[in-house]
Structure formats: C-alpha cells, structure tokens
Amino acid sequence: MTKAYASLKQAARLKPLEIERRAVGPNDVQIHIDYCGVCHSDIHMVNNDWGISEYPMVPGHEIVGHVVSVGSDVTKFQEGQRVGVGYFVDSCRTCEPCKAHMEQYCENGFKMTHGSETDDPGGLTFGGYSDAIIVDEGYVLNVPENLDMANAAPLLCAGITAYSPLRNWDVKRGDIVGVIGLGGLGHMGVKMAHAMGAHVVMITTSQGKAVDAKSLGADDVLISTDQAAMAAWAGKFDFLLNTIPVAHDIVPYMSLLKLDATMCLVGIVDELESVHTAPLLFGRRSVAGSLIGGTKEAQEMLDFCGEHNITADIELIKMNEINDAHKRMEKGDVKYRFVIDLKTI
User: Fold this and answer.
1) In whole angstroms, what is the distance from residue 21 CA to residue 120 CA?
2) Apex CA 57: angle with CA 56 and CA 63, to 5°?
3) Contact status, residue 161 vs residue 181, Cβ threshold 8 Å
4) Model-level pTM greater than 0.85?
5) Contact 320, 340 (CB under 8 A)
C-alpha cells in the first residue's frame, strides 16, 4: 500500500489515505516521490470547479523523485535515476498530436496524473500527494543532476506551461516580451524569457512587485493601471505571456503588441469579458492559448533549465500542512510555489 493525502468528496479537506498502486509492468517505472509541487489546479480538482473531478482525489502533478525499479522492457531509465512526472501519464499514442509528442493535445484525451479513469486499483489515477507512483516510461522525464530537486518540482507544470508558448512563438534574443502577472506561472515566465535573451517586462497592477520582478530577471516593470505608462509602451511588444489566473479584461494589453504579434493566455480556464476587435484588426494581432507541453518539449525544458540553472522560487511544506497551503494559495500568499516534502508524509 502507498501512503497518500486525499480529498474524499467535493471541497473536502485532504487527509491521510492508503492507496494501492498497480504492479510494475514491462514498460513501467516505479518512482519514490521526493517532492511534489502544489499547483492551483490541484485546488480546482479538489473543489470540482471544472466539473470533471471524481473521488477520492489524490492531487499532485509536479512530481520529482528517484527510480526504485523498472519493468523488463524499460530502456530509458534505471534504478536511482532522478526523474519527474507532469500533468499526464498516458494518451492514445496514435493521433497526430501524440505522434508529434504533443500529447497534451491528444485528440482522444490524455490521462491526467490524478483523477482520470483507469484500470489501476481504485479505478482512478492517483497523483503526487503520495510517496510513490508507477508510470509508463514514455511519460517519465529525466531531471538534470545540477537542479535542486525540491525547487525543480514546479518545472513539471508551471515551468513547462511558461516554456511551451515562449518556444512556440520563437522568443529569442532581442525580443521585447511582456509577462503579465507575477505568480507561480509568471515568475517562471520571467526567468525563462530572460534566459532566452529577451528584454523582459513584468506587467502588473502592483508597484510593490517591481523589486521582486527585477530580482527574477525582468528588465523593466510596467504598471498596467498607469495609463500614461501603458501608452508609452504601446506597439512595442513582440510577445505577451498572460498568466493571470482569473477572468479579466484583456483589451488594455492588446495595444501593447506590435504588428502581427500575439498574446498567449496560459493562466485562465474561464470565460473572458467581451473583447473589442479594434486592437486585433488594426494591428493584425492575435490572442492565443497554450496548454502545458508534450513529453518531448517538457524534456527540452528540463534540459534548458539545467543548462541555465533555472528552478522555481518555493516554500517547502510538510504533507500535513497542505490544507493550510491551499488556503494561502487562494489568497495569493506564497512566493511563488508551495512544494511538499514527501519525506514527511
């Protein structure tokens, strides 16, 4: 049996629960979980905010640990290796996105690390708020040796969520990139865009975040409620990464973009307020979205972070502190990601 923390019904406090993992199959990797990041989507899943949750819910998809054992046909991993697991643990493998290693866009729906139906014991996938997990090797990632394990955990979701659009829209040296919102996603976006050589502007409503933003790698800070400052930056951005996690008016940001430039939304799963089309038409600008990243891109991201020594800024907690951590996250009271030390489960 595996020790875990679970919510037994919608919006219930998490508490200890013993779960059963499947036996190690020929293509499986058995992982002892050392650390698991805490993502805001964990709270959404516990609360069933998206209407897809089933219980018991063992959240957690920013998983890092060590390989304990491998199946007979596993070739990529060996005992003792540092590995990670992100938001999904399986997909159909046959559709065009899957064949292109973009499993997050699987046409038949990927299998989430927590809360998806499965043939495993319990009938549901159980996530990283536990001390062990068994995952097909195709969905396991190598974690560079030079990265601190606890600080690397959020790379498996927040990191790849920021990295994927920066790569897809070809952010490069000399580009002017705006990162909207300084939280778990935003602070990763600043670090990564800076490492790519961009001139990074943190866009925020809070002047108090200016010092933190510059310490993370931002070259400038733009206060979005300052109309004169917004006007001065109009038409200067090659790309905007919008990490705001709640519904908001995106129109004020659109005029910041250059001709043919894009603002990508990564922080919100909700309805937007009505969007006026003038900023789109008069600059041939685009609004897009991006979802985590596929296995190939996620490994590329981890290698990039290893090369540039990029990890998340975290607050390490014990497993029994998770309910308080969830409450603090809802208030924005963390810089910038909680990570659970699973040695304390």
Assistant:
1) 7
2) 140
3) no
4) yes
5) no
Q: Which tokens hold the place of 30?
A: 């058995």
pLDDT of residue 200: 98
Three-class DSSP category at 301: helix
Q: Identify whether the C-beta of residue 235 lies closer than 8 Å to the C-beta of residue 255.
A: yes
DSSP labels for 14-38? Answer: PEEEEE-PPPP-TTEEEEEEEEEEE
User: Where does the pLDDT of residue 110 fall: very low under 50, low under 70, confident under 90, or very high at 90 and above?
Assistant: very high
Sign of the C-alpha dihedral computed for residues 341, 11, 107 and 264 taken in this order: negative
Token pair, residue 83, equals 């590995």
Residue with tokens 């498996």: 156
Q: What's the pLDDT at 268? A: 80
Residue range 225-231: mean pLDDT, rounded: 96
Q: Provide DSSP, 239-294.
A: EEEE---S----HHHHTTEEEEEEEEE-S--SPPPP--SHHHHTTT-EEEE--S--
Task: Identify whether the C-beta of residue 238 lies closer than 8 Å to the C-beta of residue 261.
Answer: yes
Spatial separation of the C-alpha atoms in residues 293 and 165, rounded to whole Å = 9
What residue ranges define each of the domains in the chain, with the CATH number in brackets?
2-157+293-344 (3.90.180.10), 159-289 (3.40.50.720)
